Amino acid sequence: MNNLPCQGCKGLCCGPVPVTEKELKKIKKKVRSMPPRIRSNLQNQPRHFGTCIFYDLDQDRCGIHSVRPEVCRAFGYHKNLVCFRNPAAATEGTWMAEDMHVGLLTVDITWKDFS
Ligand code: SF4
User: Does residue 77 lie in a domain region?
Assistant: First the structure.
């Protein structure tokens, strides 16, 4: 399911996002298994203040798509997570996290946590 017009947005909705311990564990595994060149490219891209550290500007997409947090998966489809370019896609009820969060990607959790 992806009828959101993500292409061209350059990660506009990808700001700091809350992650659970389980999600963080998966992300760490993914980041550590990245080829050094890809990881270094992702790490050194000049992003706007507040843009998620994993947003891949060169590719115009999430750099950790297969392990992105639940809130990222829910974005655009729930009444409290509306995509302004396609508000009609937000047909589901209020999204609520199922687990406790351990921090915000980009604010509390930065590249230094993935070394
Ligand atoms: S993890 Fe991926 S989808 Fe989620 S905010 Fe970051 S770049 Fe966007």
Answer: yes
